[in-house]
Amino acid sequence: MTAPTPPFRDPRLPFAKRVDDLMSRLTLDEKTAFLHQFAPAVERLGIAAFRTGQEALHGVAWMGPATVFPQAVGLGATWNEDLVRRVGEAVSREARAMRARDERVGLNVWSPTVNLLRHPLWGRNEEGYSEDPKLTSAIATAYTRGLRGDDPAYWRTAPVLKHWLAHNNETARDTSSSSVRPRVLHEYDLRAFRETVEAGAVAGVMPAYNLVNGRPNHLSPHLGRHLRTWTEEDLLVCSDAGAPSNLVDSEHYFDTHEEATAAALRAGVDSFTDHGTDSSKIVARVRGALERGLLTEADVDAAVRRQLSVRFRLGEFDPEHDPYAKERDFDTPEHRALAREAAEQAVVLLKNDGVLPLAPGTRVAVVGLLADECKLDWYSGTLIHRSTPLEGLYERFGADRVSFAEGVDRVRLRTADGTFLHVLPSDDVPDGARAAEGALDPALLAGRTDLPPLTTDATGTELALIDWGEGVLTLRAPDGRYLSVAEDGYVRASADQPGGWVVQETFRLEPHENGHLLRHTGTGRPVQVAADGVKVAADDADAEVFGLTVAERGEDAVTRVASAADVVVVVAGNDPHINGRETEDRTTLRLPGQQERLLRAARAANPATVLALVSAYPYAVDAGTLPAVLWTAHGGQAAGTALARVLAGDVSPAGRLPQTWYADDADLPDLLDYDVIGGRQTYLYFEGTPLFPFGHGLSYASFGYADLAAEVGDQTVSVSFTVTNTGEVAADEVAQLYVRAEGPSVPRPRRELLAHRRFTLAPGASTRVAFEVPLSALAFWDVAHGRWRLEPGPYALLVGASSEDVRLSTTLTLDGEPAAPRPVGERGLEAADFDEQSGTQIVDRTKTAGDAVTPAAGGTGELLYRACDFGTGVTRTTLSVAGTGTVEMALDGGVWTPALSPSAPAAGPYDYTELDGAFTAGGVHDLRIRLRGSLRLAHVGFSG
Fold it and tell me: Which of 7, 350, 446, 937 gives 629 a disulfide partner, CB atoms 3.0 to 4.6 angstroms apart?
């Protein structure tokens, strides 16, 4: 007899019932094993092994050749949800096709990144979409819908949003804490996640490495309090790599890994990414936590249930019903065309005094360190096709009309005995980028040891020296290979490009005696010349002292070709693996010095100099002396072709900046200042003059705006206007709608994006653009009452082509809920619900929930709470505090009360005591509180 089909295998049943049945059949040990990223098979039930996590930020990454689309920040610059949805579809189709031939390819994709691009020096700027939560959520929603597919039951891939929460720094990223006040939390950081999750195409989130308000994100109470209330779907929370161990090892938040693992699981982490493919440590920690009573089987069940829910949605248990099971679209003509379209739409024309588009027959000099490069980043796949700006311009204008100078310094390195570093020839220099074979963790790929190390001889080898800024440089052999150091410590010309988790292709030239030490940055060790070849030395005592012989300065080569051309295109920017990447923030907005010198040389030789920035982040450049400036993110496989088509006018540029381009480093807040309101950050609050504003981007056409109409309904504001192409070429325009509260009771944005639309218009054509904006989009988080509130009064609606290029405006007066004073006489005050602060930071009240406030660095800080209603009167105050220090209070601008302080030092930061003191107040007043020392203030109560 045939055994009956178990209910979990019955596709007629709802997924939830099937998960219930499967859960009932699994043992506790089997369920515990599922908690690691690499969940083992359960052969007795016919359940296959499963892993969470497949990088797919702008194409399937780390698994070999795939279609490579523009970086995420470039997709954000398109301001085009339809395009980004199609990119997501293509990526998910390729993931399915790649999995069909390689089961290591996962369908639980860890993309997109929705961290807001609050600070342009963040090393991972390339991974986000925008500094604005509305634009970020719109683009992220489009990408996740493409990744998910449109079947009502089954998902093509299951996207996980990164990185929860308030994460914009690589500096001390696993130990730094983001101080996030409630208004910033709700109006800014949570918002991008919330609107994307509510759209219904998200399978989960990944917590970030950092802490928020003193508590590690892998213990975030907001996972349960907010995230899981936004959807009825089971959301899978996957830890970031190594983060569970960080709770003990680097953050010292717990004494034991059993405590840490239990706390993370109870907070809502469902899958632990730790120790690579070795699940034994996590399994042992969970078992230890169970034995100690730190966890219950119900805690384990909750996490496993959410993982199984995703696996069922991916069709794992119903291959015959899964509409995506036979997906085989990979590197199709449609995907190639889409990659080019995305790269074209990502180009932003920042300035144009008429030199662009280039006229037919123009003699073009293409110069710069990125002119003949198609750079990849850490989350790229391996290129199948590639195009550089030089190749694109060759193709478009013809090789006889295009000249080239890379602008590298060509040098030889002389040893103390008068010989020079020499690269031995090799017959084995295969093509193909690092990690072309695919690797679940490319950080584990080792450098090549099969090529001969460098030696010395009388003439040496001329090397291309590129200075990427901060004193970090690369050296390239004539055959195009970069000098690199492998595990055996020898220096070889072996790398296609700089890359890897620890880049082994970067060096520093450090002045020493009458020459330089050549220090390898990956190992921190200097280079020496030994009898068996050139290698890194054990210490500086064995280092070689090199002299630098310059055969040609890059500026000279640039000057030579620039002076003979009609127009010069300087292609400048960054290498995504150097000076600004995951694990490393930038230190300045300026271009590296070598690239600034090349730009000056080109401009001096030829005033018709166009700067094309190809970068993962904004730069502060002197645009005033240049007739044209463009920016594009690293644009993937079609980057060069796309840029050439825009320069030639085959495509009118219509990308828009997804973040503010500041004019100077002095305009930037501290990297760790997450208070966008108090710090006046991003276009929402910045009061200075940017180099280029949020939403900025020019066109080869011109557009007129007219006939603005706005009407307030019960729940929405209807806004419409007409846009006309008044230019001579067909082009895209991006119409943008902003709002500004006039005369608000609390600081509100200078302007805030409500809606946008990208569309194409032929010359002379018009279109009516209409938006329906929910009134809730105009509300703010009222800290006085802990909820959203729409304030009554006038609101300016601003329509235009950027946040500063406003073409039409009108003012509406809205009904709303008037401000009400804080009922502090009845409820007291939560310390973190301040209106303004100086010199304080928010910390964790307990290890599981709640906030407290403490002076920064043990100094002095002040808190301001406006319009506090003390009712008919109070005579005493009770303060919940921990630590040591003092508290003083004052009404309005009055005198401070006598300082209160704990009578004895607290045993720990979470051991709270009640301070009781005299305090007389009645009616409504502003309340000021001053803290000194390491005191933590959690709550203030009033009585009497």
Answer: 350
